[in-house]
């Protein structure tokens, strides 16, 4: 049994069947990629893992416990962290302050924004945040405003903020979308390092095949809301059914 088990998940939006009958098993300590052409249902599926959507049918369990109907923060407490498609950091706070917020949320559960002044004096939080920035290779950028970071560094900070929550499952929705090649390669290296150094499972939705084939242990191909094939990267590459699903897309498989 996988750490994340998706059974017979279906989701309609009005007349549109966004997810048909999805079955998926993500094994612990692997990188599992979910790929598929635009509109295949990838983000809809991810939203069902994190409390943003409740499927019409089926079940989603993490470590044997259902996540359906739970609030996003409860799912976070179970050990699932999610990196959004657009980086969610505070542009007018420094890199260190952004990191301190996630360290603070991990320790104290919740906080109000006006608690930031107290947080700034909290030695334990400062130390945790500094350590995580060190690990992310971002210590030299600690005083920069979030808004001033490059796209790649925003993503790096956001991944670090997720890791400060000590998740067992990290979910990434197209983490390299809109990035220049150099930033994409840096993100690939960072994720490889995380995979090697941590006890963590990664589920990644990705459009960029270079990223997918650099990182994934298993790949599920979604097409029109239904898994078409699930296999190793070697077997997915050049698979006739997968090529067919990507007809008309700019990406080649
Ligand atoms: P992907 O991430 O694979 O590109 P999505 O999961 O975003 O695809 O979307 C799958 C399909 O569901 C698309 O046809 C999209 O237009 C539709 N869809 C997604 N979210 C909604 C929504 N909230 N309301 C209506 N239709 C939606
Ligand atoms: Mg999407």
What is the rounded distance between the termini? 29 Å
Low-confidence segments, ≥5 residues, pLDDT <50? none
Number of strands: 10
Tell me about the biggest sheet? 6 strands, mixed
As a percent range, the share of strand residues is: 15-25%
> How would you spell out the order of helices and strands?
EEEHEEHEHHHHEHEHEEHH
Ligand names: adenosine-5'-diphosphate, magnesium ion
**What is the CATH level 1 assignment of the largest domain?**
Alpha Beta
Structural class: alpha/beta
What is the average of the pLDDT values? 91
Structural shape: globular
How many helix segments? 10
* Major sheet: arrangement of strands: 6-7-8-3-9-10
From the alpha carbons, calculate the radius of gyration and give it in angstroms: 18 Å
Judging by the overall fold, what is the CATH architecture of the largest domain? 3-Layer(aba) Sandwich
CATH superfamily of the largest domain: P-loop containing nucleotide triphosphate hydrolases
Give the fraction of residues assigned to helices: 25-40%
**CATH domain fold name of the largest domain:** Rossmann fold
Number of domains: 2
How would you describe what is shown here?
The protein has 253 residues and is an alpha/beta fold. The chain folds into two domains: 4-89 and 151-247, P-loop containing nucleotide triphosphate hydrolases (Rossmann fold, 3-Layer(aba) Sandwich); 93-148, no CATH class. 37% of the residues lie in helices and 24% in strands. The chain contains ten helices and ten strands. It has helices spanning 42-49, 72-78, 95-108, 116-119, 123-135, 151-163, 181-197, 209-215, 233-236, 240-245; strands spanning 4-13, 16-26, 31-35, 57-62, 65-66, 80-83, 169-173, 201-205, 218-223, 226-231. The strands form two sheets. A six-stranded mixed β-sheet has the order 6-7-8-3-9-10, with helices on both faces. It has a four-stranded antiparallel β-sheet with strand order 2-1-4-5, with helices on one face. Helix 3 crosses helix 5 and helix 3 (95-108) packs parallel to helix 6. The longest helix has 17 residues, at 181-197. The chain is globular, with a radius of gyration of 18 Å. The model has no long low-confidence stretch (mean pLDDT 91). Adenosine-5'-diphosphate binds next to strand 2 and helix 1. Magnesium ion is lined by residues 42-43.
């Amino acid at each position: 049994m996988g750490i994340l088990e998706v059974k017979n998940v279906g989701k309609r939006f009005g007349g549109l069947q966004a997810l048909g009958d999805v079955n998926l098993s993500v094994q612990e300590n692997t990188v599992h990629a979910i790929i598929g052409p635009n509109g295949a249902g990838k983000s809809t599926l991810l939203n069902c893992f994190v409390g943003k959507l409740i499927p019409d049918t089926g079940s989603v369990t993490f470590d044997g416990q259902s996540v359906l109907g739970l609030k996003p923060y409860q799912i976070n407490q179970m050990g699932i962290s999610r990196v959004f498609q657009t980086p969610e950091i505070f542009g007018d706070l420094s890199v260190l302050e952004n990191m301190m917020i996630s360290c603070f949320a991990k320790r104290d559960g919740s906080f109000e924004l006006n608690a930031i002044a107290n947080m700034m004096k909290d030695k334990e939080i400062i130390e945790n945040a500094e350590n995580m920035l060190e690990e992310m290779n971002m210590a030299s950028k600690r005083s920069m405003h979030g808004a001033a970071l490059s796209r790649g560094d925003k993503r790096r900070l956001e991944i670090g903020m997720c890791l400060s929550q000590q998740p067992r499952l990290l979910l990434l929705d197209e983490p390299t979308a809109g990035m220049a090649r150099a930033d994409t390669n840096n993100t690939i290296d960072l994720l490889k390092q995380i995979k090697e150094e941590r006890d963590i499972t990664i589920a990644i939705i990705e459009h960029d095949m270079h990223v997918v084939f650099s990182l994934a242990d298993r790949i599920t191909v979604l097409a029109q809301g239904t898994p078409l094939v699930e296999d190793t990267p070697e077997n997915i590459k050049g698979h006739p059914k997968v090529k067919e699903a990507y007809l008309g897309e700019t990406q080649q498989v």
